[in-house]
């Protein structure tokens, strides 16, 4: 299991420059502090706040055809959900067997893909019926998943992103995520947005924007100060969804009672 990152200072809402310095020192080592200062860091503006099930240990979030889809984790509480954005109402739910700890979800060509953490198994569901159609083997751990037109893109808590063929579920390629030349561990929930991979970083209130070809972090979105009412260290930012048609960006976190539509201030 990965070392937990101490982020006490981050919760205080640091200035952008300070954030970059601290982020670099925590994740990458002190030697990279100066180099990391070259990466742009953008703030956010909250556009809308919507209800979110405070019992949902969010591990995957995505948007498809005017509906929000969510995957939750923890053994005995893991599920696949279809949720109405404005009311937070649960419209469909499929529970996982309690032996599985659910992780990220992605939707591609009428199928929903859901990962599990350490069981080396992924599930493929029919988008409409939520009927489980097949399972697949996943080497290593399963954390986040998103997709572009021809690949599923999977994180495993390391700095690696694997690109899988959606039909065979076999790995086609992989890329290492680096910030100023150093690998970034703990890459978590993912979303493919306008040709970039956006990634939550476990225990950090930031989203990394990654070039899928090179793995380079090209900018950072700072979400410090969002949802301050947390009751435990588990309640981290984890969930990015993109409404391509409406150009809306949604984020939430594990056990958060709110889901936010945000705008990145570039
Ligand atoms: Ca996502």
Kindly describe this structure.
The protein is mainly beta and 266 residues long. The chain has a single domain (10-265), classed as TolB, C-terminal domain (Neuraminidase), CATH 2.120.10.30. Helices cover 8% and strands 48% of the residues. An eight-stranded mixed beta sheet has the order 16-17-18-19-1-22-21-20, with helices on one face. Strand 3 and strand 4 (79-83) form a beta hairpin. The longest helix has 13 residues, at 16-28. The relative contact order is 0.19. Bound molecules: calcium ion.
Task: Produce a short descriptive summary.
The chain has 266 residues and is mainly beta. 8% of the residues lie in helices and 48% in strands.
Q: What are the key terms here?
A:
single chain, 266 residues, mainly beta, Neuraminidase, 4-stranded antiparallel β-sheet, 3 helices
Given as residue ranges, the uncertain stretches (5+ residues, pLDDT < 50) are 1-22, 24-35
Question: Major sheet, described briefly?
Answer: 8 strands, mixed
What is the strand content?
over 45%
Q: What is the rounded distance between the termini? A: 35 Å
Q: In total, how many domains does the architecture comprise?
A: 1
- Give the number of DSSP strands: 22
Number of helices: 3
Silhouette: globular
Summed over residues and divided by their number, the pLDDT gives a mean of 89
The kinds of small molecule bound in this structure are: calcium ion
Question: Tell me, what is the CATH class?
Answer: Mainly Beta
Instruction: Strand order, main sheet: write it out.
Output: 16-17-18-19-1-22-21-20
The CATH architecture: 6 Propeller
Structural class: mainly beta
Q: Could you name the CATH homologous superfamily?
A: TolB, C-terminal domain
Q: What is the CATH fold-level name? A: Neuraminidase
Task: Please trace the helix and strand order, writing H or E for each element.
Answer: HHHEEEEEEEEEEEEEEEEEEEEEE
């Amino acid at each position: 299991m990965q070392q937990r990152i101490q982020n006490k200072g981050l919760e205080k809402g640091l200035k952008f420059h300070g954030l970059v310095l601290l982020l670099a020192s925590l994740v990458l080592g002190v030697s990279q502090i100066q180099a990391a200062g070259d990466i742009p860091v953008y703030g956010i503006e909250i556009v809308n706040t919507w209800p979110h099930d405070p019992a949902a240990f969010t591990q995957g979030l995505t948007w498809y055809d005017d509906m929000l889809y969510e995957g939750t984790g923890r053994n005995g509480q893991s599920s696949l959900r279809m949720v109405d954005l404005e009311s937070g109402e649960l419209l469909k739910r499929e529970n996982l067997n309690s032996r599985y700890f659910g992780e990220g979800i992605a939707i591609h060509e009428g199928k929903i893909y859901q990962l599990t953490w350490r069981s080396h198994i992924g599930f493929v569901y029919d988008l409409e019926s939520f009927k489980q159609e097949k399972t697949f083997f996943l080497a290593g751990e399963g954390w986040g998943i998103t997709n572009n037109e021809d690949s599923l893109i999977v994180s495993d808590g390391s700095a690696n992103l694997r690109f899988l063929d959606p039909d065979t579920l076999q790995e086609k390629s992989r890329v290492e995520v680096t910030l100023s030349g150093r690998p970034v561990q703990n890459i978590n929930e993912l979303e493919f947005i306008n040709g970039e991979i956006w990634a939550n970083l476990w225990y950090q209130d930031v989203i990394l924007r990654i070039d899928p070809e090179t793995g380079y972090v090209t900018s950072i979105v700072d979400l410090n100060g969002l949802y301050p009412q947390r009751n435990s260290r588990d309640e981290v930012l984890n969930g990015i969804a993109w409404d391509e048609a409406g150009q809306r960006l949604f984020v939430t976190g594990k056990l958060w009672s709110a889901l936010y539509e945000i705008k990145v201030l570039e």
